[in-house]
Each structure stands twice: as C-alpha cells, then as structure tokens.
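Review form for a predicted model. The reviewer records the input and the model, then writes brief findings.
Reviewer: anonymous (R2)
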Amino acid sequence: MTQSATAAAPTTTEIPDALTRLRAVVHRLRAPGGCPWDREQTHESLIPHLLEEAYEVAEAIKNNDMPHLREELGDLLLQPVLHAEIASETGAFDLDAMAHELTEKLIRRHPHVFGEANAETSDAVLKQWDAIKREEKGTQRESILHGISHGLPALMRAQKLQKKAAKVGFDWPDAAPVLEKIREEAAEITHAMEARNAAAVTEEVGDLLFTVVNLARKLGVDSESALAAASAKFERRFGQVELALEAQGKKPQDCTLVELDELWDAVKVKES
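Model under review:
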C-alpha cells in the first residue's frame, strides 16, 4: 500500500509527546488509505479485544512480570484510544473529552483530597464515593444494587452484588451458615436431577455457584482469582498427565478414567 509523505505517521522528533503520537498513529490507521482491519472496527467489534487485553494485564500482574505488564498495559491503552477515535468520527466525543470528564469526576469524588471533606479510611472513601455518585445521578429511587455492570464476569458480579447487599446488613453473620446453605443447594440439584427437570437443574446449579461465591467472600477470598488459580492448577496438572502418557507412547483418549485418575493422583502427590 502506497502512502504519501504527508500521510506518514509522525516521528518522535516531530511529536515528542508519546500519547500525542499514539493518537496520531491511531488516527492514521483509521483514515482513508490506512489499515483495512482498523478501519473496519466498531465499538461493538472491539469488545472482545478490550476484555482479552484486560485479562492479559491481570495475568501479568499476578505473575509479577513488569516487562510483560508494561506491554499489556500498552495494548489495553490502545482500546480507549481506538474507541475515542471511532467516536470522534461521528462527533460523539474524543479522547480529550474523555480525559476531561474523568479528571473532573476524580476531583468531585475525592473532596477529602481536593476539598474540605474528611475520609480517614478506605471504607469511608467508598461510602463517600457512592453518596456523591448517587447525588450526581439525581435518582430519587435507586436500588442499593444499582450500578453493578452486567458486563462483568459472572463470579465478579455476584461478589459485588453480595458486598453491596452486605453494606445494609443483608448478609450471613459468618461462614458456617453459608456452608449449610451450600449443602442445601446441592441437595436441591439432586432433586432436580431425579425429576429430570433440566430448567430446574440449571437454576439450582446457578444458586449453588452464587452461594459458593458468598462463602468465598465471607472467608476473604476473591472468587474470580480463586477460580482462575484453580483453572491454572488444573491445566498444569493435566499437562503433567499428558507428559507422563507421552513417555508411555499413549494419549489421554487411549486410557480409561481409572488410568487417568491414577496418573492425576501421582501428579498431585509429586506437587505436594
């Protein structure tokens, strides 16, 4: 693809501000004669990329991998810049408008820093933030649970819903009754299975998962992180099972469940 000299992306010496240069590069990618893939993107088509980049940032943080974190945060930064560029093409808003709105919001919702209010603890800060947010929205009747995005991963959203309800006293006193509730939900799944009621099975499994999230919260465990760690552990151990089978000239599909379980137990013993 040919490009005119005037259409080429600016050099660092031409635009010393790295963020300004990033905006110029994204603008060039979206402009006529730019990148076909970038020009095809919409707010909707970019949703999977936004989510994927956020999770890759989280993985780099968990691995304490600073070079990787810098790279992944850069990839994540590209997403709002792209969205702002797309919005600017219809006059909806641009990156400056986004940054201005965010800056003003941060100042308004931190009066203990930029004003005369007092908030000595994180809990006090969060309560103040929620109160200011409700006042800004101007809603006369708003549910305690309002504002928790439906776009969040299911476990994360369940945890946030429960935490908000707990703020007004709708919560278990401790973990013990939650364990009892888990047993109750498991029994209800059994009943639904025996009745061959697929819809009820789905509902009861959901109730069980929601209750397990409640138990994790009462124990101070982040459900999303705990499940991610469990999935990573499963992936690692299954990989070890595959390696053991490979040494025997076999594949998992060549084995019985009993044989796979024996190898799995051996891997667990080796890790312990």
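Findings: DSSP finds twelve helices and no strands in the chain.
Further findings: The two ends are 57 Å apart (CA to CA).
Recommendation: see findings above.
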